[in-house]
Design a protein that fits this description.
Low-confidence stretches: 1-17, 214-223
Helix content: over 70%
Distance between the termini: 64 Å
Number of strands: 0
Order of helices and strands: HHHHHHHHHH
């Protein structure tokens, strides 16, 4: 039977991998951590599918009597990150969207924004991953969607989504807390950390490359 690592190496690495996953959970499954993760989740730079939803559930299960605070913190963080993405959209404008969103997806987003008002658009934030809501926020800023209405609706929908998750966490809190100590959970967290690093790195590289193309296009246009 083959092994990915020799037996001594596997024994050496396993405790450190588990320690990393535990630190990750401790870091983000906290009041400050859930705010920060929610903010990062609403930007173009960071990607961890289901990450914020999992942290909301874990922290709510731990806090129980104070679980009502978790959806508020997650919503505040999400609105903060979305505000940054929205502001980026305002700065780049409609013409700049092609640098950050694939053409086929961009056409669908533009059609949805033009057909729907700010309320209908922001209501999409209630849909959990893998629905790609961040490009809609970017496009909303670029296409001049009414800011106050958009963010009011977004915040209400996020509170509803995170609130439902918090309620479920309270009901199933004991089972969730028991599962947190399992080896399966530690393995899942490890995979999620690796996935977050890969997706975030890919996002940053894509954004940097799209930004570097701007001077070239400007020079071509002037020439």
């Amino acid at each position: 039977m083959s092994r990915a690592f020799p037996w001594p190496v596997a024994c050496f690495l396993a405790p450190r991998v588990r320690s990393l996953s535990r630190r990750f959970v401790i870091l983000f499954a906290s009041p400050l951590g859930v705010f920060v993760l929610a903010a990062l989740d609403a930007t173009l730079f960071f990607s961890l599918p289901f990450g914020i939803d999992a942290v909301v559930i874990i922290l709510s299960a731990r806090l129980r009597g104070m679980a009502w605070l978790v959806p508020l913190l997650a919503t505040a963080g999400s609105a903060t990150g979305a505000a940054l993405t929205f502001w980026m959209g305002v700065k780049i404008g409609d013409a700049g969207l092609e640098r950050y969103v694939p053409p086929k997806r961009l056409e669908k987003i533009r059609a949805r924004i033009r057909a729907s008002g700010a309320i209908a658009l922001a209501a999409l934030s209630i849909i959990p991953p893998p629905f790609p809501f961040t490009p809609f926020v970017l496009a909303a800023g670029a296409l001049g969607v009414e800011t106050a209405t958009f963010f009011t609706t977004l915040s209400l929908c996020r509170i509803l989504r995170f609130g439902i998750e918090a309620v479920l966490a309270i009901w199933y809190g004991r089972r969730i807390l028991q599962w947190l100590d399992s080896q399966l959970f530690q393995d899942i967290v490890t995979v999620c950390i690796a996935l977050a690093v890969i997706l975030t790195t890919a996002s940053i590289i894509r954004i940097v490359r799209s930004t570097r193309r701007i001077p070239g296009r400007a020079a071509a246009a002037n020439g």
